[in-house]
Amino acid sequence: MFRNLTIRKRIMAILAIVYVISLSLAVGGGYYVLRQDTIRESNEKTEIFSAAMSSSAAYLGSAIRPKVLEYLPETYFPEATVGIFMLTTIAKTVQDQYPEYIYRIASPNPLNPENLANEWEEQTIKKFETGEMESWRGFVERDGKEYYAVATPMSAGQNCIWCHDTPEVAHPKMVEQYGTRSGYGYTLGDVVGARIVYVPTDVALAQAKKKLAYFAGGFSLFFLLALIAVDRIIVSSVVRPIENIVAVAEDISRGKMDREFEVKSNDEIKALADAFKRMKVSLAKAMDILRK
Ligand code: HEC
Fold first, then answer.
1. Domain assignment of residue 224, given as a range
2. 156 CB less than 6 Å from ligand 1?
3. Do 130 and 253 reside in the same domain of the chain?
């Protein structure tokens, strides 16, 4: 394929192929590593966010709710007794500062319509129900943005039923607030929803892409300089000396015996020039003998 090309073009073509292959490998590998980095970072963020939220709920459950129920057994005070109510409220406060971080307690059968699972959340909850998955983590799109999300199932325990059984059993104030449309009918052990933490990845991924673009630019510039340097070396140490030898040999073949093979370097081309020099001397001697 390269046979009909000049030495110079052949070397340039090989270097260009090396450039394309090494750039694709480096960019492909770099993208993989940076994406893994984004996943690790997003994972850490979701873990910290979830841990902070679960700890708040645990605190409510162990330190506040028992006292409230003890001191005010008849009062409906969800702010201090319903962990999920507290979590969804805290999540909104967190969102004031970090609007892109989303904490959801989603359910296909919610008391509060804001907690209604979207299509993807509902499918995930179904998979928790059928036992196909115990938890889910990965990339997911939400309102046209890419997020890294971690979802874990929530099942109804004994302590959940008194609010989520039937509107007749639930506290009248709660029924008054949320209505009787949905949010009831829990049975013990059922998966009733999922906790889902979404952290945005677009910023991290955009940064990763920017880093790769800089790298590709730097790499290309370096390769271009290397290409120019190699080209100069080939021209000055191979192409020109060979052209020179060809011109001298052609002159000598036409009888201009005063021409000399001159090579400044000390390499294969010099060996070639020396061989030609010896041939010229032999030729001159042969011609002398012939002339005598
Ligand atoms: C004291 C009553 C009460 C108890 C006990 C209770 N919940 Fe709820 N739950 C609520 C209220 C009120 C909401 C609506 C919160 C809001 O407005 O965001 C809710 C919301 C939820 C949601 C979000 C979807 C929706 O209905 O809006 C899930 C899922 C849920 N609860 C599951 C549970 C589970 C599981 C338990 C037991 C661990 C439990 N709940 C215990 C009252 C209760």
1. 209-291
2. yes
3. no
